[in-house]
Amino acid sequence: MSKFTGTPKPQLAILGASGHGKVVADMAELLGYACVFFDDAYPDKQTNEVWSIVGTSADLYTRLSEFAGVAVAIGNNAIRAQKLQELQNLGAVLPCLIHPNAVVSQYARIGAGSVVFAGVAVNAFTQVGMGAILNTGCTVDHDCRLGDAVHVSPGANLAGGVTVEDHAWVGIGASIRQLATIGANATIGASCVVLKNIPADAVVVGNPAKPLQKHSSAI
Ligand SMILES: CC(=O)SCCNC(=O)CCNC(=O)[C@H](O)C(C)(C)COP(=O)(O)OP(=O)(O)OC[C@H]1O[C@@H](n2cnc3c(N)ncnc32)[C@H](O)[C@@H]1OP(=O)(O)O
């Protein structure tokens, strides 16, 4: 007598066997996927905790038809954007993965290849581009505009009408005042409080946000 095994789970390939990748895989399993990793450290590295690494990024590009979807778990915003673009050009399916315990308004839009982790809230009429990381417990309030491959780190809070341009990184626990704009590729340091617009490529820290100064001298 054959044993009933149920419907096979859809397979998700995750590019990047990182710590971030573990969180993506854990969430994807909750969403019903079975996960394997691809990473250029293969074959020297063959596991990422409980998950198998089965090939390099080049291997993934030749095996896309085997997968129901591909996630890119690379924290660097520019590299993640580049890999997502290459995968999209090859016809890969890039699902937007939203944790069951995230709260996303029915009037919000989040782009392909984005991940939204546990405890996140995204409020009405916010739009998020492709390949975003909305990390654990961050909030993105109403009418925000987030570009492609942005990262909002754990516990960061964006008030209403904030703009975050492509590839910008909002650090852990940062707060962004309503209607402020964070320029492309900018970095907002951990716990920073942003009250005014931040130009592209800037690195700012503190309360209120100021450009990062490195002033350690030899002790
Ligand atoms: C799940 C996850 O883990 S997601 C990842 C979450 N992580 C984050 O959000 C981290 C965000 N990154 C930061 O805050 C970083 O410190 C950055 C990007 C702002 C600066 O990094 P670096 O360029 O490496 O700066 P570095 O560590 O050398 O520090 C330089 C100076 O700035 C100070 N500094 C660095 N970050 C901050 C900050 N967030 N607030 C205040 N001062 C800071 C340092 O104390 C140091 O001061 P000193 O020169 O007087 O000693």
UniProtKB/TrEMBL annotation:
Residues 11-86 form the PglD N-terminal domain. InterPro entries: AcTrfase_PglD-like (IPR020019), PglD_N (IPR041561), Trans_hexapeptide_repeat (IPR050179), Trimer_LpxA-like_sf (IPR011004). SUPFAM superfamilies: Trimeric LpxA-like enzymes (SSF51161). It holds the Pfam family PglD_N. It comes from the Bacteria. Belongs to the transferase hexapeptide repeat family. This is Acetyltransferase. It comes from Denitrificimonas halotolerans.
